[in-house]
Amino acid sequence: MNSNLIAACGMNCNLCISYLRDKNKCPGCRLMDLKNAGQSNKRYSKKCTIKNCNIIKKNNWKFCSPECKRFPCQRLKNLDNRYKTKYGMSMLENLDFIHKNGIGIFIEHEKERWIKNDKIFCVHRKEYFDIKNKEE
């Protein structure tokens, strides 16, 4: 599981159908600006208010932080609520875990939680995908 696939909002892109699928594969929110990213992904990346947050950029943070006076902002609250309701995961819980424990321990925790028998769980499809050809 790649730590560069943890988005600023706390989404684990390793678990996203857009990253796991083979056709029109998204490189992940952090890697989206690379020249090999699909055009539709680049357009989405430019629109993402969390990824493009001036406070995150100004402080050179990788993630939304409880140190921010606006944390959690309304956009992050809405995203978190949608993912808790539809997909059984919480961006705010992920961000809190990363803030308290660091990204390395978070990745180990995510591996234990989402990987079984060389397959990774896709939160959007609620099924396991083969990870033999995926970056770990």
Briefly summarize what is shown.
The protein has 136 residues and is mainly alpha-helical. Helix content is 41%, strand content 7%. The longest helix is centred in the middle third of the chain and has 14 residues, at 74-87.
Kindly estimate the percentage of residues that lie in beta strands according to DSSP.
Answer: 5-15%
Shape: globular
Whole-number count of domains? 1
Mean pLDDT: 86
Helix content: 40-55%
Descriptive terms for the model:
6 helices, mainly alpha, 136 residues, 3-stranded antiparallel β-sheet
Describe the structure.
The chain has helices at 17-20, 39-47, 54-59, 74-87, 91-101, 103-114, and strands at residues 115-116, 119-122, 127-130. The protein is mainly alpha-helical and 136 residues long. The chain has one domain. A 3-stranded antiparallel beta sheet has the order 1-2-3. The longest helix has 14 residues, at 74-87. The N and C termini lie close together (4 Å).
Q: Which helices and strands, and how do they pair?
A:
Blueprint: H1 17-20, H2 39-47, H3 54-59, H4 74-87, H5 91-101, H6 103-114, E1 115-116, E2 119-122, E3 127-130
